[in-house]
Amino acid sequence: xxxxxxxxxxxxxxxxxxxxxxxxxxxxxxxxxxxxxxxxxxxxxxxxxxxxxxxxxxxxxxxxxxxxxxxxxxxxxxxxxxxxxxxxxxxxxxxxxxxxxxxxxxxxxxxxxxxxxxxxxxxxxxxxxxxxxxxxxxxxxxxxxxxxxxxxxxxxxxxxxxxxxxxxxxxxxxxxxxxxxxxxxxxxxxxxxxxxxxxxxxxxxxxxxxxxxxxxxxxxxxxxxxxxxxxxxxxxxxxxxxxxxxxxxxxxxxxxxxxxxxxxxxxxxxxxxxxxxxxxxx
Length: 282
Fold this sequence. Notes:
alpha+beta, Nucleoside Triphosphate Pyrophosphohydrolase, 3 domains, four-stranded mixed β-sheet, three-stranded mixed β-sheet, 16 strands, 30% strand, globular, magnesium, EC 3.6.1.22, metal ion binding, RNA NAD-cap (NMN-forming) hydrolase activity, NAD(+) diphosphatase
């Protein structure tokens, strides 16, 4: 696969999370994380600091990479002198090993900052297991990191044309694949079919899994699919989708060359990867 966050490159070392002895590692590398921003150096690359240089914050064990223990400190905002940059921007620029660590850190940091109180009783939560568990001192509830599954799909018709759509909030020339969150009690394939019918009014039969991508902005797991529609009559919902149309491979190539449409950038989103895989098929 050829897109950001396509696989983990570091050992998360879950067996080390129940004590803090990893903090005593003299080679420990620490990443400061605020929201989706991380410190950087020219290159670009992540700016790692020592434990002694770390600011006050919530500690998070990331694991081992290259024989070295890596951790993060979650803060409200990364100091300006550390050149904070969004991981969205850094994704296609970082080497895969650093990107793997950054995505783990960002996903966990967003969860830690947004889940401060117990959903059962409202008491403030305590951090446990090196940042990977929140416990309630009042009712003893355990809260684990959440991931929201979402399906993202390239739909084709009987002529093998690809369906691309423009979200109502996007600029007029920006197009991508359809996507939507999986509902409780719903199979992934059924989520694909439901979302396509809701957004563009098309019935979908065959659905095949293609790949996945963690998307920590804030907590999604994008599950990529190809699907085949049994009709080509598009009826957009006019709420989420402003426009949708079918493209042959030649039509898409011509539209891109003429700058009539803009697709997601390559090497970042699984959406573009799905489109490219279809385009490469004869």
